[in-house]
Design a protein that fits this description.
The protein is an alpha+beta fold and 244 residues long. The protein contains six helices and 13 strands.
Length: 244
């Protein structure tokens, strides 16, 4: 976990709305037991590319529309204008799920659980605040695929419990668990589970961590599918593949 000193300074050489956390303002808490549990629950560590092609990012319409105002685009490579702009990832669904489609060949490959720590960029906002809202931030994102919706939902809630444990047992910050409203959930998700903190000074809640159940939207677009194991060897007519 990382925390910042209130004496954090602005560096005039940085872009507007960017913030630099100086070494002396950071406190890093490393607990081997907690980190091992995180890896065990969240899957294999990986790191997917920072850049996403325009065509790939736009494959999921609702997803890209939700992030459209926040996407930063690269339009030049050196002095050469690119034929198509390249996005800097605001999140990694469209960067990762082509790999999922190639890696998952049958139900025996499930669940597939990948976890990465990376930087993402979200451009559109007016009032940056360290740890609350900056254009570039470092985070953890786990992506998984499951045979059934129940298994996927169990994963969502299990990881949410782990996030809550870090806040409550490591940082002594109480959390409230629940689901986002339809208007607040992540673009392209069926539903978004959340843990929220409470700010006594303002009487408001503040999002601490979220986890999303994406349903089958992305799996249908990227062709992530397996044969139904329940229909094998029964003599029944072959069932359509299950999008996972």
């Amino acid at each position: 976990m990382v925390s910042a000193s209130p004496h954090q300074r602005r560096d005039d050489q940085l872009l507007r709305r960017a913030r630099l956390l100086y070494p002396q303002t950071l406190v890093v808490v490393y607990l081997e037991e907690d980190r091992s549990l995180l890896h065990q629950e969240m899957g294999v560590e990986c790191n997917f590319p920072l850049f996403i092609s325009q065509d790939n990012l736009q494959r999921e319409k609702e997803h890209i529309e939700g992030f459209a105002a926040e996407v930063a685009w690269v339009t030049y490579g050196g002095s050469t204008k690119l034929e198509k702009p390249v996005a800097i990832r605001p999140t990694s669904e469209t960067a990762m799920y082509g790999y999922f489609a190639k890696e998952i060949r049958s139900h025996r490959d499930l669940p597939l659980q990948l976890n990465q720590w990376n930087n993402v960029v979200r451009w559109e906002f007016k009032h940056p605040m360290p740890f609350l809202r900056t254009r570039e931030f470092h985070w953890q994102e786990g992506h998984t695929a499951h045979l059934t919706e129940k298994e996927a939902e169990n994963e969502v809630l299990s990881i949410l419990d782990h996030y809550a444990d870090v806040y409550e047992h490591l940082l002594a910050v109480p959390m409230v668990k629940g689901y986002k409203t339809k208007s607040e959930q992540s673009p392209g998700a069926d539903r978004t589970a959340t843990i929220e903190g409470f700010i006594p000074a303002t009487g408001r809640g503040i999002q601490a961590a979220t986890n999303h159940c994406l349903g089958q939207q992305f799996s249908k677009i990227f062709g992530i599918a397996v044969e139904d194991p329940a229909s094998k060897g029964t003599g029944e007519e072959k069932q359509p593949p299950i999008h996972v």
